[in-house]
């Protein structure tokens, strides 16, 4: 029999040893499934949502083709001339980089330069024909005034014919600007801007439509110089933008985005391999330019940018990569429209600004053609118009072939033109014109001529007003756009309501994908990187945790197993969360958590079966006379319980309500029961919360003790804490009594507490027993409760208890007494308050009381009476002061015997 039992134990031990390995293998297998991956990504998303909101770099501007632009400029897709028109404006306001999240890989039809057709051509016609008509008018005026003889008129007429022919040729050249190659126009605008990045798509199959020339251009111009080789994905070819754009753009980057199996975008590859080349993600080339073209080194777990130029100085920056070579994107939490607040610019406002400038030039042209300028020497408005024509010609020439110096010269001259217009508007041209016209009108002999001159003044004034308003609007937009675009990395994309270019992020179900590139740029610019531990770390813990838990849990009871298991789960979860919140390092903790939970659940179930019977016995045996809290402690560790009577050092408490018999006579039975239940519930909760055991209730009285059936250190202190808390609760309870009229008077509790040797154990018979306490120390606690009446106090204890409880309490020293049935004298101590909560004045009162008590015990009755009388003047209701003042007065008349030892015999219980 013994041999069979031993074999059974060996098998059980073997099974319990193999079980951790089985749990590890099971969790490992589940961890490799897509379901487990989805759960892990969900946990990652939760952790990400608990991190502080990502700091959003002010260096980014999102130039949106939004609903405003679509509504005012026409349905998408637009003619590429709009983008060509926007790029010089971006350059004018200091944009550093422009990244197109728009693929221009198909040809667009020839277009019409609508801006020139609607405004520029009219201005050119007005200027050219104004010059011709002015020359004709001047010729006829000279002939009329006989300034030119008729014989010489033929020469002037020939000059006019030649001027008309030249004007015709110029009109023909100008009109050719109406038609334009939109692809070429955009390409030239990219070249003029100088810092544009094109969208490039990498494909896993060969692109037969891509010419060898374009493929060679991409390979030579846009391949990134890096050290190290990114892992190959299998890309075979490019889907590229138009040749003219490839030739003129500064950079190109791929727009391929990784989508996790659950449909969300969490990560992105910054560098991909295609053939012998290394190609950057769309926004990465512009970032490298902003960072001073740092050296790029690629490793399996990181990309290092050496000597990157950040606003706070030069530094080496490490971009962590996951096990597949992806950078985790630190996404903003809000929608695309709400993210990067105050950094969105509708592209409409760029086009509108260009139109405003054209309208400003048109107003200048109209003003320059007024006859009013004939009465002064210089046509300043015409000078400004001619400057604008020169600027337009310079821009057209720069579009064909530009250099940084030419571009800077163009923008400098354009700024000078705006400054000149400001000077013109604020200068004195209009007053000078008005004075000259009014003077000529006054001198005119013809009333009709004078009327025409005054009408000219009104029309000229109106044009000046239009010019001033137009210039003011342009300046306002210039200041706003300058603030929004100066030095920015601009990302252009279509974000209108009709866009299908949407994706899911950890925070948003439909996030406009243009924001992906902004988020990538923001992560690198702000260096707010996220990373994750290698996969093997999580898988290793899946096997180690079950074994470690087995050797810990097998020594514990079920409840402690659950506590340890729960603590471990919380620790792992808290560790993973803490790491992520503080460092951005994500530890895939789900599989280790499952392994830990499964391990302690299995072992807890095994232990539960073996311990259930023992616990049921304990609860049945003790449930009739111990609190649930104490029973739970005994159930957790039955070895702490010693059945039968046992002598222990403990603390006992007795309480009683003053005059409760009188109170009960004035209440009905129902009212009395309700009052008692309410009172006893609150008071007993305090005792139980302080780890006390309630022995019994006797009407309104409570008997409780500390130190059994479990050993309890500091039981004297906890008993006094309970007593003071009960008196504090009494104040709130009596307020409720008065509000609800539960009792005719307040309930005031007297409490006696004593510490000493007591017997604790089962008392009674086999059919009826009770776990209670006995002994002289218990009797003294009961006597102290009643002694409160004689001293006018509420909480009495002994110097023994006070010594054990410590200095946390403010005590008032009273008599040395012998109580009924106990011969050994003890020093009575009133527990007045918590020492740190007592008012300074009350502490002084107690000190002065002790001085009076010393005089009393020295038999100096006169001084003692004076001292207690002064104390009563301060507090007329103080019970102990009343008692000692009365005694001191009596002893002056009849002193105690000389043999009196200062101990009072208390004959009343």
Strand percentage, roughly? 15-25%
- How much helicity do the residues have? 40-55%
Task: Specify the number of helices.
Answer: 28
Please count the beta strands (DSSP E, at least 2 residues each): 30
> Uncertain runs with pLDDT below 50, 5 residues or more?
1-9
- pLDDT average, as an integer? 84
Question: Termini, distance in Å?
Answer: 66 Å
Could you characterize the architecture of this molecule?
This protein is an alpha/beta fold and 909 residues long. The protein contains 28 helices and 30 strands. Strands 22, 23, 24, 25, 26, 27, 28, 29 and 30 form a 9-stranded mixed beta sheet that branches. A hairpin with a 2-residue loop joins β10 and β11. α23 (715-740) packs across α25. The two termini are 66 Å apart. Mean pLDDT is 84; it is low at 1-9.
Q: Could you list some keywords that capture this structure?
A:
alpha/beta; 55% helix; 7-stranded mixed beta sheet; 28 helices; elongated
Quick overview:
This protein has 909 residues and is α/β, with parallel strands linked by helices. The protein has 28 helices and 30 strands. The N terminus is likely disordered.
Compile the SSE list and pairings.
Blueprint: H1 2-31, H2 34-50, E1 60-65, H3 67-73, H4 81-92, E2 97-100, E3 111-112, H5 114-144, H6 153-175, E4 179-180, H7 182-193, E5 196-203, H8 212-222, E6 226-227, E7 237-239, H9 243-248, E8 251-254, E9 267-268, E10 271-274, E11 277-280, H10 284-290, E12 295-298, E13 302-310, E14 313-320, E15 327-328, E16 344-346, H11 347-368, H12 380-400, H13 404-426, H14 429-443, H15 447-485, E17 489-494, E18 502-503, E19 511-512, H16 514-525, E20 531-532, H17 535-553, H18 558-583, E21 585-586, H19 590-622, H20 628-636, E22 646-657, H21 660-665, H22 669-689, E23 693-698, E24 701-706, H23 715-740, E25 749-764, E26 769-774, H24 776-791, E27 795-798, H25 799-805, E28 809-818, E29 826-834, H26 840-857, H27 861-874, H28 879-893, E30 903-905
Parallel strand pairs: 1-16, 1-17, 2-5, 2-17, 5-8, 6-12, 20-21, 25-27, 28-30
Antiparallel strand pairs: 3-4, 5-7, 9-15, 10-11, 12-13, 13-14, 18-19, 22-24, 22-25, 23-24, 25-26, 27-29, 28-29
Helix pairs in contact: 1-17, 1-19, 4-7, 4-11, 5-6, 5-11, 11-12, 11-15, 12-13, 14-15, 17-19, 18-19, 19-20, 22-23, 23-25, 26-27, 27-28
């Amino acid at each position: 029999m013994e041999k069979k039992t031993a074999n059974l134990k060996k098998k059980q031990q073997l099974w319990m040893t193999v079980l951790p390995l089985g749990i590890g293998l099971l969790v490992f297998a589940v961890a490799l499934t897509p379901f487990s991956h989805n759960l892990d990504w969900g946990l990652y998303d939760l952790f990400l949502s608990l991190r502080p909101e990502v700091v959003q770099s002010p260096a980014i501007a999102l130039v949106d083709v939004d609903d405003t632009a679509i509504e005012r400029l026409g349905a998408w897709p637009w003619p590429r001339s709009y983008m060509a028109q926007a790029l010089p404006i971006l350059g004018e306001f200091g944009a550093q980089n422009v990244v197109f999240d728009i693929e221009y890989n198909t040809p667009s039809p020839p277009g019409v330069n609508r801006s020139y057709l609607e405004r520029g051509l009219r201005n050119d016609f007005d200027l050219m024909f104004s010059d011709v008509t002015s020359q004709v008018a001047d010729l006829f005026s000279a002939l009329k005034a006989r300034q030119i003889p008729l014989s010489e008129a033929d020469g002037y007429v020939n000059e006019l014919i030649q001027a008309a022919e030249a004007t015709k040729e110029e009109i023909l050249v100008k009109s050719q600007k109406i038609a334009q190659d939109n692809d070429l126009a955009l390409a030239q605008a990219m070249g003029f801007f100088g810092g544009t990045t094109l969208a490039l798509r990498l494909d896993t199959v060969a692109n037969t439509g891509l010419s060898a020339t374009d493929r060679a251009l991409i390979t030579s111009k846009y391949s990134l110089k890096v050290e190290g080789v990114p892992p190959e994905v299998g890309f075979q070819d490019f889907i590229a933008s138009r040749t003219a754009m490839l030739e003129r753009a500064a950079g190109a980057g791929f727009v391929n985005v990784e989508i996790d199996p659950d449909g969300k975008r969490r990560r992105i590859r910054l560098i991909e391999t295609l053939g012998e080349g290394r190609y950057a993600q769309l926004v990465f080339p512009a970032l490298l330019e902003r960072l001073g073209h740092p050296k790029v080194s690629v490793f399996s777990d990181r990309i290092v940018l050496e000597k990157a130029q950040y606003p706070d100085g030069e530094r080496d920056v490490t971009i962590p990569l996951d096990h597949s070579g992806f950078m985790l994107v630190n996404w903003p939490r809000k929608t695309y429209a709400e993210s990067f607040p105050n950094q969105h610019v509708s592209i409409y406002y760029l086009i509108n600004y260009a139109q405003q400038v054209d309208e400003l030039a048109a107003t200048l042209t109209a003003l320059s053609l007024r006859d009013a300028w004939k009465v002064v020497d210089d046509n300043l408005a015409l000078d400004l118009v001619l400057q604008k024509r020169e600027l337009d010609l310079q821009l057209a020439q720069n579009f064909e072939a530009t250099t940084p110096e030419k571009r800077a010269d163009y923008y400098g001259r354009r700024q000078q033109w705006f400054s000149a217009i400001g000077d013109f508007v604020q200068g004195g041209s209009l007053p000078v014109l008005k004075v000259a016209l009014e003077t000529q009108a006054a001198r005119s002999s013809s009333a009709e001529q004078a009327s025409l001159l005054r009408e000219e003044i009104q029309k000229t004034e109106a044009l000046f007003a239009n010019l001033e308003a137009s210039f003011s609007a342009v300046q306002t937009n210039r200041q706003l756009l300058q603030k929004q675009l100066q030095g920015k990395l601009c990302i252009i994309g279509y974000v209108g309501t009709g866009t299908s270019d949407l994706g899911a992020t950890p925070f948003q179900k439909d996030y406009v994908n243009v924001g992906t590139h902004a988020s990538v740029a923001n992560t690198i610019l702000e260096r707010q990187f996220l990373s994750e531990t290698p996969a093997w770390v999580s898988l290793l813990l899946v096997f180690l945790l079950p074994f470690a838990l087995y050797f810990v849990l097998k020594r514990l009871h079920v409840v402690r197993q659950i506590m340890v298991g729960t603590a471990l789960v919380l620790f792992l979860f808290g560790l993973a969360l803490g790491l992520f919140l503080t460092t951005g390092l994500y530890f895939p903790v789900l599989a280790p958590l499952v392994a830990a939970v499964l391990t302690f659940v299995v072992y807890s179930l095994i232990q539960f079966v073996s311990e259930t019977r023992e616990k049921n016995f304990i609860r049945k045996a003790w449930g009739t006379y111990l609190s649930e809290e104490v029973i739970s402690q005994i159930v957790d560790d039955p070895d702490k319980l010693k059945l039968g009577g046992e002598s222990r050092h403990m603390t006992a408490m007795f309480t009683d309500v003053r005059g409760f018999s009188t109170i009960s006579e004035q209440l009905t039975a129902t009212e009395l029961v309700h009052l008692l239940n309410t009172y006893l519930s609150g008071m007993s909760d305090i005792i139980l919360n302080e780890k006390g055991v309630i022995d019994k209730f006797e009407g309104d009285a409570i008997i409780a003790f500390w130190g059994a059936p479990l050993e309890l250190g500091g039981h004297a202190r906890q008993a006094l804490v309970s007593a003071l808390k009960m008196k504090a609760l009494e104040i709130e309870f009596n307020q409720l009594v008065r509000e609800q009229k539960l009792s005719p008077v307040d309930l005031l509790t007297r409490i006696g507490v004593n510490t000493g040797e007591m017997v604790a154990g089962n008392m009674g018979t086999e059919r009826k027993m009770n776990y209670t306490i006995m002994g002289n120390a218990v009797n003294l606690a009961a006597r102290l409760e009643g002694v409160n009446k004689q001293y006018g106090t509420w909480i009495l204890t002994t110097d023994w208890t006070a010594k054990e409880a410590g200095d946390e309490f403010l005590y008032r020293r009273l008599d040395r007494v012998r109580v009924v049935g106990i011969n050994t004298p003890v020093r009575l101590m009133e527990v007045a308050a918590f020492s740190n909560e007592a008012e300074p004045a009350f502490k002084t009162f107690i000190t002065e009381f002790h001085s009076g008590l010393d005089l009393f015990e020295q038999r100096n009755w006169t001084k003692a009476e004076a001292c207690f009388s002064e104390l009563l003047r301060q507090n007329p209701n103080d019970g102990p002061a009343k008692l000692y003042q009365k005694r001191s007065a009596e002893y002056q008349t009849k002193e105690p015997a000389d043999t009196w030892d200062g101990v009072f015999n208390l004959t009343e219980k």
